[in-house]
Design brief:
mainly alpha, 0% strand, elongated, 326 residues, Leucine-rich Repeat Variant
Length: 326
């Protein structure tokens, strides 16, 4: 026995104990694997007893950098929403070092793994991931297409613009919505028409996403919206299709949120066009936000000129908006 042999050569008991401990410890890669496993349990278990150890464990795993990538990629077959979020946080913090292996997961037949790869690449936000995302922009699965569009938007590199413009015409409304959101991160001069067209989309989520993206561009978007509204109002008196009504209403809402007071005249024209109460409502509220109390006289005059009680109530919304401004 080792203990007998050690004593026969006169080794002190303390040294004997240290020898036994060293023999019991895994070495090299086994030590690293054991540490990674331990940290992962604490980071992803969701148990109350580990609550205070979650963030430190995530930080420690990220601190391993490229040495932890393979371990984390192996975990990407998970179906747990919590584990997916933890993986996104850690791999996102590791950054560029994880891109090659994460990109490979886009080719996985497991759509959960592929979608998670999109999330991770979007979190990393490095243009190096764009070339591996683009080929999957027209994947047969709509949720992969939506994930790719979201990732490209998070990265925000102009090289994805043309692909995202095509994706904004996707047959699936969720993929279109993701693409329209992503277009809000691309050069405005290239995507302005696509976003304005998105205001007429049949799915409300796409319409509101397009409006939000336009607002994000500020005054350049206001100029485009004014032109769109003016061209549409030329047909005032005609019965506009419902998608066009949506577009006009949201265009007015955008002008109010952008805050460019040069748009006040356009909003007044929309209110006076008097062919759709919904458009009048949105335009009145936008004017109230834009001009504040100085628009009250105009709005009250329009309200009094209306015989339809529904239209009067729509204009009242604008009066309330104006009264609420300083």
């Amino acid at each position: 026995m080792i203990q007998t042999n050690c004593r026969s050569v006169g080794l002190p008991p303390t040294l004997i104990i240290l020898i036994f401990l060293s023999l019991a410890q895994p070495a090299g890669a086994d030590v690293t694997q054991a540490k990674l496993d331990s940290l992962w349990i604490r980071a992803s278990s969701g148990e109350i007893r580990f609550a205070e150890q979650v963030q430190p464990s995530k930080d420690s795993l990220a601190g391993y950098g490229s040495d932890a990538v393979e371990f984390l990629v192996d975990k990407m077959n998970t179906r747990s929403a919590l584990e997916m979020q933890i993986l996104t946080d850690i791999l996102g913090k590791i950054g560029v070092a994880g891109i090659p292996r994460v990109c490979q997961q886009l080719d996985s037949p497991d759509d959960f793994r592929a979608r998670l790869a999109c999330r991770v690449l979007g979190r990393i936000k490095d243009p190096a991931a764009v070339p591996c995302l683009l080929p999957h922009a027209f994947d047969p699965l709509f949720n992969i297409r939506a994930g790719v569009a979201t990732a490209l938007g998070e990265i925000g590199h102009p090289s994805a613009t043309d692909t995202l413009r095509k994706m904004a015409k996707d047959q699936d409304y969720l993929a279109r919505k993701s693409a329209v959101v992503a277009l809000g991160k691309m050069p405005f001069e290239k995507v302005a028409d696509d976003l304005v067209n998105g205001l007429s989309d049949g799915y409300y989520g796409v319409r509101y996403a397009a409006a939000s993206s336009l607002v994000g561009f500020g005054k350049p978007a206001a100029a485009i919206l004014k032109k769109f509204i003016s061209n549409t109002l030329i047909v005032s008196g005609s019965l506009l299709p419902q998608p066009r009504i949506y577009a006009l209403a949201l265009a007015a809402d955008c002008l109010g949120k952008i805050g460019d007071k040069s748009c006040s005249k356009t909003l007044q024209e929309m209110i006076q066009s008097d062919y759709d109460p919904v458009v009048m409502d949105y335009a009145a509220r936008a004017l109230g936000v834009l001009e504040g109390k100085s628009s009250l006289k105009f709005l009250k005059k329009i309200q009094l000129s209306q015989n339809d009680i529904f239209v009067q109530s729509m204009i009242a919304e604008g009066i309330l908006s104006a009264s609420a401004q300083r």
